[in-house]
Amino acid sequence: MDRRSFLRFGGMAVSTLALAPRTWAEDMHAMHMAPADNTALLPVADFPAGRALPALQKLKNQANPAGQFQATLTAAARTVQFKPGLDTVVWAYNGQNPGPLIEVYEGDVLEIRLINQLTQPTTIHWHGLPVPPAQDGNPGDEVAPGTERIYRFSLPAGSAGTYWYHPHPHGHTAEQAYMGLAGPLIVRSRRDPLMGMPEQHLVLSDLKLGADGRIAGNSDMDWMNGREGQFVLVNGVLQPTITANGMQRWRLWNMCNARYLNLSLGEQPFRLVGTDGGLLEHARTVTQLLLAPGERAEIVVMGNGEIALQALAYDRGMMGDVPAPQTLTLARVALSGGATMPMPSHLRQITPLTPGGVQKRVVFSEQMSMAGGVHSMTPLINGKSYDMNRVDLISQRGAVEAWSLVNDSDMDHPFHLHGTQFQVVSRTHNGQTVPEPFLAWRDTVNLRPNETVLIHVVQPQAGARMFHCHILEHEDRGMMGILNVV
Ligand code: C2O
Ligand code: CU
Ligand code: CU
Question: Entry's Gene3D superfamilies (predicted)?
Answer without folding.
Answer: Cupredoxins - blue copper proteins (2.60.40.420)
